[in-house]
């Protein structure tokens, strides 16, 4: 569905959109049910993403990428997620895993890792643990200095692209006594001694995506792979999440748009009482409300991307707003889409029930929507205290 506003998309963004639409229709739609049912990782589609250059969008030109903007990436993610948010997650989960390197790594680290990722090597972000989700500073994984190396011990949980990615950005405590100021970020490669993969999760939605434990048992990581310096890990994590939340917002927006399109098309063809069900005002108004929510979420997500692309540093509030609002919209719109399709909507014959399951995670990961509201609320109080309004 074309948005009422054109949002001033550039030539390049329109090209990205149509490329992703083609990949969605031709490559993703025929296999999405299979991946949803089996939970099999979509290696073939990842290759398609790589060949189309989609991994290069978020990598700066100097390191072999396209040097695309946040908005370029948001548009790609939105479009792909109209078709399957779990499959597309291989791509933007890599974006999340790469952000600590793009935003905070030194020149050597960038030169070593970013060109590989631009070509389609998967990356993953390892922060969460069994007892450290919203309370990100409570992580227990440790990194003990030993000569030129750090020795990592601990287990990361629910890691997107876990087991499939080759490059991992991992948060571990170099000094537990310092709380958030004792955390540090490391780049760890698959195959490193003492690094293995644990339980693979069986999920409600985004089932094509691999979500797995990462296990570190005396895993030695060279000090050259420390990002930014000891004690800066929490800052790396927060900067990364601020920058990546618009991608989750775009994922939610894509899911909502996909479900809305299916609901509208279905309502024109499904006949009851001798007329299409779209002739009933009850459903027509419901779809109008769904469309208003999607349109306003898109305006907020694009506004956030434009703000970030303008070089703004204080992005936490807007990025949290975009993620929180778009994901709440996705949950509500997909639930209503199932309602429009009625009994058919509840069956696997149409993908709206899958979209409803996929939407749920967007309210939970990369910071629950309760955490987003906390971030937004605290930012508002800070602005008031600074006399900004
Ligand atoms: N950017 C840069 N620095 C930030 C920051 C941000 N957005 N938010 C906090 N910080 C800094 C603070 O300035 C503070 O630094 P100093 O110690 O130098 O003063 C430090 O980080 C700790 O901040 P704070 O005390 O606010 O930390 P809290 O433990 O209260 O946590 C929240 C703050 C809840 C916002 C944070 O833990 C969070 O985002 N949690 C959700 C994590 C998440 O998204 N998990 C999902 C898994 S990852 S897919």
Structural notes for this entry:
The protein has about 400 residues and is of the alpha+beta class. The chain folds into three domains: about 10-120, Orthogonal Bundle (Butyryl-Coa Dehydrogenase, subunit A, domain 1), CATH 1.10.540.10; about 125-230, Butyryl-CoA Dehydrogenase, subunit A, domain 2 (Beta Barrel); about 235-380, Butyryl-CoA Dehydrogenase, subunit A, domain 3 (Up-down Bundle). The protein is about 50% helix and about 15% strand. The protein contains eleven helices and ten strands. It has helices spanning about 10-30, 30-40, 45-50, 70-80, 85-105, 105-120, 235-270, 280-310, 315-345, 350-360, 370-385, and strands spanning about 125, 140-145, 150-160, 165-175, 185-190, 195-200, 210-220, 225, 270, 275. Strands 1-4-5-8 form a four-stranded mixed sheet. Helix 4 packs across helix 7 (about 235-270) and helix 9 runs antiparallel to helix 11 (about 370-385). It is globular. The protein starts with 10 loop residues before the first helix and ends with a helix. Coenzyme a persulfide binds near residues 137 and 241.
């Amino acid at each position: 569905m074309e948005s009422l506003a054109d949002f001033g998309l550039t030539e390049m963004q329109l090209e990205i959109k149509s490329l992703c639409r083609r990949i969605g229709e031709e490559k993703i739609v025929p296999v999405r049910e299979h991946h949803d049912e089996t939970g099999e990782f979509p290696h073939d589609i990842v290759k398609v993403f790589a060949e189309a250059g989609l991994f290069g969008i978020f990598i700066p030109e100097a390191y072999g990428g396209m040097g695309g903007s946040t908005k370029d990436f948001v548009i790609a993610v939105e479009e792909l997620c109209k078709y399957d948010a779990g499959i597309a997650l291989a791509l933007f989960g890599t974006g999340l895993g790469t952000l600590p390197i793009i935003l905070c790594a030194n020149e050597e680290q960038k030169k070593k890792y970013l060109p590989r990722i631009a070509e389609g090597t998967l990356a993953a972000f390892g922060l969460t643990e069994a007892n450290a989700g919203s309370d990100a500073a409570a992580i227990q994984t440790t990194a003990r200095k030993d000569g030129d190396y750090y020795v990592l011990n601990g287990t990361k949980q629910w890691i997107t692209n876990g087991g499939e990615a080759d490059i991992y950005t991992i948060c571990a405590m170099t000094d537990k006594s310092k709380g958030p100021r004792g955390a540090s970020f490391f780049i760890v490669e698959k195959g490193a001694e003492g690094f293995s993969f644990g339980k693979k999760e069986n999920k409600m939605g985004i089932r094509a995506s691999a979500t797995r434990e990462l296990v570190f048992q005396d895993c030695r990581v060279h000090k050259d792979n420390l990002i930014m310096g000891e004690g800066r890990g929490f800052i790396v994590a927060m900067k990364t999440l601020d920058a990546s939340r618009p991608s989750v917002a775009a994922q939610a927006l894509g899911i909502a748009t996909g479900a809305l399109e299916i609901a509208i098309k279905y309502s024109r063809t499904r006949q009851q009482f001798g007329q299409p069900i779209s002739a009933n005002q009850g459903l027509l108004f419901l779809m109008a409300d769904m469309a208003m929510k999607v349109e306003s979420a898109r305006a907020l997500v694009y506004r956030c991307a434009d703000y970030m692309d303008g070089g703004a540093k204080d992005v936490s509030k807007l990025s949290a707003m975009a993620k929180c609002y778009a994901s709440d919209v996705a949950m509500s719109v997909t639930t209503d889409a199932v309602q429009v399709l009625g009994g058919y909507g509840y069956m696997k014959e149409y993908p709206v029930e899958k979209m409803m399951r996929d939407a749920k995670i967007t309210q939970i990961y990369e910071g629950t929507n309760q955490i987003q509201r906390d971030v937004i609320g605290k930012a508002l109080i800070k602005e008031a205290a600074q006399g900004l309004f």
